[in-house]
Amino acid sequence: MKALLICPDERFEVAALAEIAPLANVPILGKSLVEYWLEHLASLGAKEVLVLAVDRPDQMRAGIGDGARWGMRVIVRPDKRERTLDEARAKHQADDSATWLSAPNDASLMDHLPGLPKLPLFTSYADWFTAARALMPHALTPDRIGVHELKPGVWVGMNAHVAAGAQLIAPCWIGERAWIEAGATIGPNAVLEREVFVARGAEVAQSVIGPETFVGQFTEVRNSIALGSTAGLLRSRAMRARYTPPAWRRPRSISDFAKKNCAQA
Predict the structure, then answer these.
(1) In this structure, is residue 144 part of a structural domain?
(2) Fewer beta carbons under 10 A from the terminal one: N or C of the chain?
(3) H/E segment holding residue 256
(4) DSSP code at position 83
């Protein structure tokens, strides 16, 4: 059984997310979007998946590999532009005698998480955060080795260190090998990806902190997304109801960004 996956190309509403990786490779609770889709297709019985990528196909290929970890063959094929579902089917299925998964699973545009089609990822930064937050209760899957629910609504990854004096407020997600010092407060509605370091007295709420990011002492990060060298403030009073797309800039550090955030609060 075969299937097609279409990687989203440019999305100006969330352009900063694509600065660190193609949109299909951006981490969401410890996995990339394409990994969630490949797991989903494997559960449906797919044995071969063709991934169409316009943006940095080599990086997509490096992240996916040959598909062996999902028990399938995965081929990343560069494309000149993002195809519609009908275009992709016409181009790649018409002359192929192989058996494809039944529609709509035979071809998918990765602009949402599997099983969450009503929560688009790339229409705004706030929508991306909303989808990530909605995934939290469903992300503790059998393949997540070492991930456990420390207390209701608080998930902690393998080899993560949470000091005895740190406060974790549900819901929140602590990625693998994250380090949280005493006196730090994480949550509610906070996501720390892998290898995030949160220093003493820092606070992270209503925010996503990307992999390998340092949050300095007594830094306050709220209503924000910090990924790689980019950080942004979602200028809403809370992560709920209506949102305004953020103005993004490159900070010198997460602490530099947070100081400005606090000054504007």
Answers:
(1) no
(2) C
(3) helix 254-264
(4) P
